[in-house]
Amino acid sequence: MTHASVFRGSHKCTTMRSNSRPCGQTTPLASRCYSHAKVETDEEFDARWVTYFSKPDIDAWELKKGMNTLIGYDLVPEPKILDSALRACRRLNDLASAIRILEAVKDKSGPHKDIYPYLIQELQPTLIELGISTPEDLGMDKL
Amino acid sequence: MLATRALSLVGKRAISTSICVRGGHGVAKVDDYNPLPDVQFVTELSAEQRSLKEKEKGSWATLSNEEKIALYRISFKQSFAEMNEGTKEWKSVIAGMFFFIGMTGLVVLWQRKFVYGPVPSTFESEWKEKEVQRMLDMRINPVEGFSAKWDYENKEWKK
């Protein structure tokens, strides 16, 4: 940081030294006043939800609340989150909810028809292990 | 006095749950799209349904497709496919449109017969012939328009 004090004699030029730029002050450089809140990464988000559904003694309300919240987000959950949720259904002896979860994520994918087959492909081992049929297997995707 | 009482009622109004709220961590959230409702559809289970529920506690692989569907139907009234199904309302809308357009057509025809008087005499063919001849005599638009299309030598329209 150059110190333009040559022509100013003994005056300290504090503005040149200052690094902080309080918002509201116009700056010639490309700097933006973003919020300083910590943004959760995708991995952290996924891990949080996997942990939520992995609770060994999860109860039915928590499963419903979790799923409803998760489906409310503007995203399709990762297979690992769904795997955790399906296992939670198994612990709660709730096959209907397991099938419902698969229907819901297909619906969430909207026009992106390639997401659901990918999810089913990733979840296939779990579906076979737990004996969950997809809505397509049961003919529930048709009217 | 009345204004403050009215204001307190407004304050007690529950916030509508269908507003899109911030779901924390910068992810947008919608509150009224719940795939897993609070209360299951069938509240009073028959004996058959109760035994099915018992069977559900065991391995799901042993359940037949019909049993799985039955379990689904106990919990949920409609499948996603049934829920998202469109109505046939659009047919009524199109039918209504055609009906009213038709009615309007009848009104227009009736008007032409019973409301409007005769057209002016200037539309008669005799008048029109004289009108065209007058326009040609005046050389209306002789370069590229009306009279330009008339062959004055042969007294006929140019081919």
Short description:
The complex is a heterodimer of chains A (143) and B (159). Chain A is an all-alpha fold and 143 residues long.
Describe the structure.
The complex is a heterodimer of chains A (143) and B (159). Chain A is built from six helices and no strands. By secondary structure, chain A is mostly helical. Chain B starts with a helix and ends with a strand. In chain B, β3 and β4 form a beta hairpin. By secondary structure, chain B is mainly alpha-helical. Chain B folds into three domains: 40-85, no CATH class; 86-117; 121-158, no CATH class. The chains are: A mainly alpha (143), B mainly alpha (159). The A-B interface holds A 39-40, 45, 63-64, 67-69, 71-75, 90, 93-97, 99-101, 103-104, 106-107, 130-133, 135, 137-143 and B 23, 25-31, 33-38, 40, 56-57, 59-63, 65, 68-69, 71-72, 74-76, 79-82, 84-85. Chain A: It holds the Pfam family COX5A. Chain A: It is found in: Mitochondrion inner membrane.
Question: What strand line-up does the widest sheet of chain B have?
Answer: 1-2
User: Could you say which structural class the secondary elements and strand pairing of chain B correspond to?
Assistant: mainly alpha
Low-confidence stretches of chain B: 10-23
End-to-end separation of chain A in angstroms reads 72 Å
- Assign the CATH topology of the largest domain in chain A: Serine Threonine Protein Phosphatase 5, Tetratricopeptide repeat
The number of helical segments of chain B is 6
Q: What CATH architecture of the largest domain in chain A do you see? A: Alpha Horseshoe
Number of domains of chain B: 3
Backbone structural class of chain A = mainly alpha
Amount of helix of chain A: 40-55%
In CATH, the homologous superfamily of the largest domain in chain A goes by the name Cytochrome c oxidase, subunit Va/VI
The largest pleated sheet of chain A is described as: none
The N- to C-terminal Cα distance of chain B equals 90 Å
Mean pLDDT metric of chain A: 86
Family (chain B): Belongs to the cytochrome c oxidase IV family.
Organism (chain B): Hucho hucho
Protein name (chain B): Cytochrome c oxidase subunit 4
InterPro entries (chain B): Cyt_c_oxidase_su4, Cyt_c_oxidase_su4_fam, Cyt_c_oxidase_su4_sf
